[in-house]
Request: fold
Amino acid sequence: MSPLSLYLLAGLGAGVIAGLFGVGGGLILVPVLIWTFQQQGFAPEIIVHLALGTSLAVIIATSLSSIWAHQRRGAILWPVCLQLTPGLMLGALCGAYLAKQLPGFALSRIFALFELFIAWHLLHRTVPALIQPTHLPRWPLMVSAGVGIGMISAIVGIGGGSLTVPFLARCQFTMQRVVATAAACGLPIALAGSLGFLLAGHQAVNLPPGASGYIYWPGFGGLASCSILSAPLGVKLAHCLPSARLKQYFALFLGVLGLKMLLF
Reply:
């Protein structure tokens, strides 16, 4: 299968998952990009970083498509998103530069264990409400949470939904609103994170033609074009499924992903 075909298929899958679970699609994009870059013969020392940066760039497009579809249903909690945004962007910028210093093997193992913990947490724990749906946490808590979510998200090239969804679910919002707001929060993470990888890689050696820093534009084009089209389908599914069932599906998705990454 040609690299373009892989980009298009991965983009379709990432778009559906982005809309359904409120993630940016990076959980699919990063592994596909790494494998495709290997098949294209890119320099091994820049493959993981190039995949992370390209994934975050694609998530800009995926998030915009998901936001548009969720906003039509009035499901996004904009006050929550706006309070998280400063921390998300600061954390994503820092995470991009930190990722440049860390080996991919260690990052993948840490992320896999974290995903398994979140999956278990969603399936087995009943957490009392931290806030009521009409009251937001204090601003310092939102900024701190945003920094942590943004930093981890940039390090692993995702839109942060796997972190934002559990955080907001503890606040006792409905799962549909949680997913919609997480999708909106993916945009500032993707913007700041992709900028960070662009700047961090501007002097990297052995970059392939078509790359700017750690963003590979041919891959971005193929992935983004399909993810934009398929994200509204995931949003439609998210609003059709019961809240409890959607939470179970999300936990199962994270668990399978975590196991696969841990055993890779």
Residues 3-263 form one domain. Confidence is low (pLDDT under 50) at residues 127-134.
